[in-house]
Amino acid sequence: MIHFADEAVIEVYSGKGGNGCVSFRREKYIPHGGPNGGDGGRGGDVIFCLKKNMRTLSKLRHHRIYKARNGGDGSGWNKFGKDGEDVVISVPPGTAIYDYETNELLHEFTFENDNEQFLFLEGGKGGWGNVHFKSSTNQAPRYAHSGTPGEMRKLRLEMSIMADVGLVGFPNAGKSSLLTAFTNARPKVAPYPFTTKIPNLGVLRVDDDEDIIIADIPGIIEGASEGVGLGFDFLKHISRTSCLIFMIDASDENYLTAYKTLCSELKNYSENLMEKPRIVLCNKIDIEGAERNAVEIVEAIHKIEPETKVIPISIQNNMGMNGARNAIITLVNQLENRSSLQAEISRNEFLATRSVDEDMEVQYPGSEK
After folding, report:
1. Strand partners for 202
2. What's the whole-model pTM score?
3. 66, 22, 68: which is closest to 45 by C-alpha?
4. What are φ and ψ of residue 27, in 5° steps?
């Protein structure tokens, strides 16, 4: 089986600060030169950096220990030690960083800013050289500070796929075929279950300015939320998608119960998954009797969810595909417009709480006169 690298355990070490130096001037004709020991350099930091072109955590699985450089020691003539080099760890979008021992969420990366950085551990501070301790009563200090030690933490990194649309369905329902039809992705397609063993991403090109990312999640089976089959390993990736596309095989003998079973597995895994907007696609209506089954599926779903759009399609014969494509684009655009509106409302609510005077249209915290 192909393993999808969506989790990794690593150890990170920040650098130790360099030691301060004990040194005195030794020059001809200056018999009693004063202290001139320089400070130690600071230790290197541990920094995480978002890289949009990364797709998995496989690199971190093979390289599990990350150490920043120690700071250099100070030296005579007030020379500072060299600062330790930082260690920068690149992670893909959707990565969450947890403390390995406590499982506390420390930071989470999204798609928002490429090269976004998170300073996790600061390096130790460099120690002071003896020049700092000179005084009228102690003109020849013979001590300096040691650099402060760095820190070590053990972390668990977990990546969830960031996508606009997540494809959900039983094995062999046609998810990979739909991804192939709509996007530039080329997942394995075969007439038997579990051909998809890892999530696949594809980009649905809307126009020159807009793309929609679609994630094909490995097939869910009954009991997936309890660890049965492959679905449990990848259900977490559905949580990061904006909306869901349910794929139902209208030619399958369990066509009427398929949607209910899928919803039950998602709900058992997380109640939040069932709050996501969705579209249901009834595939394989080109097969004899399947088109009639699709009509029954539409009626059954509309009885319990009148607002859910249900579209009969045949990927094989390109039936109903334009309608499905347009429905997906419309749903994603509605969600984006809603998010923009909510962001604007939140901003206006924030500004409304700020005090206003005659000279400033908006007064922010810290700008009070």
Report:
1. 214
2. 0.62
3. 68
4. -125, 155
